[in-house]
């Protein structure tokens, strides 16, 4: 019965006109051909020249049976069936809509608030101009109005809502406003029968009262923490070392059973300390570390040592990535972008974020924490108390037109779906224009992504069970086709899991548990 079902699937692949996915991107790494598909599922291919040539035959609709004949081995049939199932080859007449699924189609929305531009640290590279004496704070009234405005304009189809807090300054220095906003947000979510979640970024320099709240399971917390470089790079506003307090809070969060995530920043002098950062994370029990090169805007522009060279950063990241896998730490960086389904937009700033700043402006970008320069292209509106919300649609439309597919330097790049030109704010800091590509990011992106994609395709890097990974392989020993060899690895991104599994043809025999890890690991011989 099962074999008859399989035969039907195979015959469907061979006896219909198929075309090559328009999103298949090819690249060469270390002299070998590869391709990837930034779609559902995320697919990585190592391809021989013969296989690539065969795939290119499908730029026009073709029948597989016409091109490869029928005397195929079982491995051939399995491999071509997998090319079809993963959407590398799609039905010319009725493409499966699963491959076009986008994260943005999820029925969830986020409200982002910047409670204050006041900060209790004076980090050497901070993009904001925060300091202990700086700026206004969001009022309770402003927060309530923002929450109400958010819910009043929500579409009925939105079933999950998230409240997020970010800087400008350190959100927890204005903690009562966070509690007010979260209380009201939950109330409104309950009224609409929606699932509510909350998250904050913090520098980790907070006392027991804040800790008591943040350790609760519903709070998702990301802590900015530079590990061994904390003392040098993140002194308190009174020039004291902040490390002991932050580490104590990280340990407490870990003890409370939370997934502990940190964000670390490296200046040029810190580049050699990346492995030490991983060791420190492993010792504290930090699960995930996102590491980024120091900003080149704001205070970062005046760094003594400056941001690291992008190529040197990329090399250090690749080295530390494997080191971290062995230590049980998930290391990531923004330039490593391929493991997500892209839409040509680099970040939320290009997708319509409207975060309320403490001085009542709406900012699309986390590096623009207040409206001190209302002409900044990232300021997209204003919310004055007692007046209706003022949106500046021309500003938003211009920002949202910064799409990788339209940037002359990026549109033909194999990374365009997810890298998409990199950060618009940093592009502006380099060239003066938001709609240029971020050159520093470009160097990192083109160094990190092809190596890790090739590693995945060739099996030097293995996806965790949470991705529901699929693989198929053709080589001279199992294929009846001369010169055709390749390896395919496909991953189902978590947001698409339930839609993917709704079809019995796609569902794996054994479903992984819901909380199965969704990162990567090394093959046993490389550990
Ligand atoms: S434009 Fe750059 S700094 Fe601003 S939100 Fe996007 S990635 Fe972040
Ligand atoms: S910034 Fe560079 S790597 Fe990124 S999409 Fe543009 S050209 Fe490609």
Descriptive notes:
It contains 15 helices and 21 strands. With 527 residues, it is α/β, with parallel strands linked by helices. The longest helix has 20 residues, at 439-458. The protein folds into two domains: 2-100 and 461-526, no CATH class; 103-333, Aldolase class I (TIM Barrel, Alpha-Beta Barrel). It has helices spanning 2-14, 49-56, 64-68, 74-85, 140-152, 175-191, 208-214, 230-233, 243-255, 274-284, 310-327, 393-400, 424-431, 439-458, 497-501, and strands spanning 17-20, 24-29, 32-37, 42-47, 62-63, 89-91, 108-113, 160-165, 195-202, 219-224, 261-266, 288-293, 330-332, 355-356, 361-363, 379-382, 390-391, 462-463, 470-474, 486-491, 520-521. Strands 7-8-9-10-11-12-13 form a seven-stranded parallel β-sheet, covered by helices on one side. A five-stranded antiparallel β-sheet has the order 2-3-4-20-19, sandwiched between helices. The structure holds iron/sulfur cluster (2 copies). Residues 404, 409-410, 413, 415-416, 419-422, 437, 441-442, 445-446 line the site of one iron/sulfur cluster (SF4). Residues 347-349, 365-367, 423-425 line the site of one iron/sulfur cluster.
């Amino acid at each position: 019965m099962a074999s008859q079902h399989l035969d039907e699937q195979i015959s469907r692949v061979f006896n219909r006109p198929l075309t090559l996915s328009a999103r298949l991107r090819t690249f060469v790494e270390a002299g070998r051909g590869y391709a990837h598909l930034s779609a559902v599922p995320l697919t990585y291919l190592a391809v021989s020249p013969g296989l690539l040539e065969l795939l290119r035959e499908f730029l026009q609709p073709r029948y597989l049976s016409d091109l490869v004949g029928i005397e195929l081995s079982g491995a051939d049939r399995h491999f071509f069936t997998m090319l079809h199932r993963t959407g590398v080859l799609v039905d010319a007449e009725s493409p499966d809509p699963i491959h076009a699924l986008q994260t943005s189609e999820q029925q969830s929305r986020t409200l982002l608030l910047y409670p204050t531009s006041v900060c209790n640290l004076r980090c050497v590279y901070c993009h904001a101009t925060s300091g202990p004496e700086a700026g206004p704070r969001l009022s309770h009234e402003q927060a309530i109005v923002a929450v109400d405005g958010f819910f009043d304009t929500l579409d009925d189809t939105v079933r999950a809502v998230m409240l997020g807090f970010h800087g400008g300054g350190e959100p927890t220095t204005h903690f009562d406003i966070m509690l007010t906003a979260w209380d009201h947000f939950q109330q409104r979510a309950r009224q609409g029968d929606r699932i509510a979640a909350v998250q904050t970024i913090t520098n980790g320099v907070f006392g027991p009262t804040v800790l008591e709240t943040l350790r609760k399971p519903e709070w998702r917390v990301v802590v900015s923490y530079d590990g061994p470089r904390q003392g040098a790079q993140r002194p308190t506003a009174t020039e004291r070392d902040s490390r002991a307090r932050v580490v104590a809070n990280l340990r407490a969060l870990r003890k409370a059973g939370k997934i502990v995530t940190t964000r670390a920043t490296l200046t040029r002098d810190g580049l050699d300390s990346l492995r030490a950062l991983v060791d420190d994370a492993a010792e504290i029990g930090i699960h995930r570390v996102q590491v980024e090169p120091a900003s080149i805007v704001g205070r970062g522009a005046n760094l003594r040592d400056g941001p690291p060279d992008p190529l040197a950063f990329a090399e250090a990241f690749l080295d530390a990535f494997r080191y971290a896998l062995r230590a049980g730490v998930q290391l990531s960086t923004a330039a490593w972008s391929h493991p997500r389904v892209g839409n040509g937009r680099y970040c939320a700033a290009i997708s319509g974020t409207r975060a309320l700043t403490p001085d009542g402006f709406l900012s699309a970008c986390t590096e623009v924490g207040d409206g001190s320069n209302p002409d900044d292209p990232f300021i997209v509106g204003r919310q004055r108390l007692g007046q209706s919300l003022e949106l500046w649609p021309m500003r938003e439309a211009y920002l949202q037109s910064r799409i990788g597919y339209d940037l002359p330097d990026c549109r033909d790049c194999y990374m365009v779906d997810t890298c998409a030109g990199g950060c618009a704010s940093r592009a502006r800091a380099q060239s003066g224009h938001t709609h240029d590509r971020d050159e520093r990011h470009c160097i990192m992106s083109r160094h990190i992504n092809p190596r890790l994609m090739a590693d995945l395709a060739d099996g030097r890097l293995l996806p965790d069970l949470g991705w529901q990974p699929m693989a198929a392989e053709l080589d001279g020993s199992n294929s009846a086709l001369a010169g055709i060899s390749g390896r395919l690895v496909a991953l189902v991104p978590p947001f698409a899991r339930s839609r993917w599994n709704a079809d019995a043809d796609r569902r794996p025999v054994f479903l992984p548990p819901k909380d199965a890890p969704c990162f990567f690991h090394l093959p046993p011989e490389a550990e």
